[in-house]
Amino acid sequence: MPQKASPVTAADLAKHAYKQQYGVIIICTDEAQQIEVYEAIRQKYPNNKIRVVNT
Fold first, then answer.
1. Residue 12: its pLDDT value, please?
2. How high is the pLDDT of residue 1?
3. Would you state the pLDDT for residue 55?
4. What is the pLDDT of residues 1-54, one digit of tens each?
5. Which positions ≥6 away from 37 have C-beta within 8 Å?
6. pTM of the predicted model, to two decimals?
7. Which residues, in sequence order, are CB contacts of 52 under 8 Å at separation 6+?
8. Backbone dihedral region for residue 25 (phi beyond 0: left; psi -120 to 50: alpha; all else: beta)
9. Model pLDDT, residue 16
10. Under DSSP, is residue 12 helix (H, G, I), strand (E, B) or coil?
């Protein structure tokens, strides 16, 4: 059975190549501390991406 050509080309992969990222995880005791830590980091590092996660 012949294989179909992939719709994703090498050029597509090069455009969206994996970019290594670095991160920090901070475990907070409660929501109030999470807000406090978030605001402190946001003010100190305004140009960084900051993500909030609840588990």
1. 78
2. 63
3. 84
4. 667 777 878 787 777 777 888 999 999 999 999 999 999 999 999 999 999 988
5. 26, 28
6. 0.62
7. 34, 38
8. beta
9. 75
10. helix
**Among all chains, which residue has been given the structure tokens 């993500």?**
51
> Rounded to an integer, what distance in angstroms lies between the CA atom of residue 44 and that of residue 14?
34
Instruction: Give yes or no for a contact between 51 and 34, defined as CB atoms under 8 angstroms apart.
Output: no
Q: Give me 9's structure tokens.
A: 């080309």
**Residues contacting 48, CB < 8 A, separation 6+:** 41
- For the chain, what is the radius of gyration of the CA atoms? 20
Spatial separation of the C-alpha atoms in residues 53 and 51, rounded to whole Å: 7
- 3-state SS string over 29-45? CCHHHHHHHHHHHHHHC
Scan for tokens 């900051």, then name that residue: 50
